[in-house]
What we know:
Structural class: alpha/beta
Amino acid sequence: MMADQSYVIGIDFGTLSGRASVIRTADGAEVGAHVVDYPHGVLEADLDGVRLPPDTALQVPADYLRVLAEAVPRALADAGVEPGSVVGLGLDVTSATVIPTTPDGTPLCELGDLAGRPHAYAKLWKHHGAHAQTRRLVDAARQRGEPWLARYGGTLSVELAVPKLLELAEADPRVYAQTAHFVEALDWIVWQLTGEQVRSAAAAGYKSLHQDGTHPSAAYLEDAGFPSGPEALAKLTAPTMAPLGARAGALSARGAELTGLPAGIAVAVGNIDAHVTAPAADAVEPGQLTMILGTSTCFIVSAEEFHEVPGMFGAVDGGIVAGLWGYEAGQSGVGDIFAWFVDTCVPPEYHERARAEGVGLHDLLSGLAADQPVGAHGLIALDWHNGNRSILVDPRLSGLVLGQTLATRPEDTYRALVEATAFGARTIVESFERAGVAVTEIVAAGGLIRNSFLMQVYADVLGRPLAVVGSSQAGALGSGIHAAVAAGVYPDVRAAAAVMGRRADEVFTPDPAAVGAYQELFALYTRLHDAFGRDRTIMHELKELRDAALKG
């Protein structure tokens, strides 16, 4: 197949919207795109007027199908590309977003008698309601000496699929009993497009504890609290597991009707949103770390050997590219923290000034903060407003800002929060290196790379140059790369990434003076990190008091 004569569709399903891009296989150029917001967004406060518990984050699966139906045809129209020129489709989704379905893949929330039950809906990656179940799963694995636990840094994240399934079993046995499949959203969308239930082996490895060709044993699952281990395994497994870049199937007649694409074209195995960014940035060799800065941050790096990295999110053989161990770590809140601050903590005069200057509040605060010398605000913060994913792996931790006085201004706190997320990133990178996973290069991607102030802070805190991906929609590009491989345009992901992946010309270089100043602040952050993260009593007790008060 000639690459210069073909196009692929890459679809990136984010937290609030989905984007379809039309990508030329010859060079990775994005020639057309369209974004569709999810009509229901994220359900966090209430469901049909009923208040949801704390730490809930749900979605409506039908919103994903709306992206397929609207974004794909409009992206093709934007590109001026005929559907017949498209040879493949690939997609990525926020990982550990899981959907309970019937045997034929119908989401349980679409059944009339279950529509009002929260556990019948998709649980988004940032749903943190399964913290008690996660502790029991970890305790059982440690007591049994389960060898696979080392692949997750010796502990488990509340965001994984198995804790969410155990939460479902205990919180709503009726919905659990009707759940035939508890499936990653990325696999479910592929299922809707092809009619074939093919699960991504990589996603199953990171999120469903699938290692060395198998899930944990039924006996382990029962020890952790599942009413039946075999029943739980049946909900987690699928007839077929396939590696990244493989063809999951052909676009079915239903998929063709939904998207406007020709039936029979290749549909790639689904992938995790952060992981597709590595090939988009042409960062698929050992030591090349991709840092995806968005509402949360993911850190993706490959290595030739397995090393146990304490507190990381997971390591999977072939998890990013074939033949290498793929490592993932992350921060549960980054852009979400800045958005929370701007939405709730900025006084009216700043809003008025931003309007007068014709800029957004983030741009205004970033500009004011950038004028400060390092350390001038007298603050240090912890970036745990949505819990800690790595390296403490504790969703019950919370944010903190230390050093505020009556002279503290919003730009001071904003800068301290940006610095806190950068300190958290450095903590993760150094944890990789201490464990033997080399980090030779860092490439940044995600929506936050547009903020040059933030990028310079990260370069200064990390003390390393930061390269930048050359696409504004790296997720869609990465999915397009996998589509090109599934369609046979390229033999593997590495070969496709070398041609279709791209870097921007801009590199953020550390300022030596700022690097030195941040050494002292990072030392304070580490002391605060260990004081509140290793001895977790205060923050945990605050959450318990909150939960009790909300229950009334």
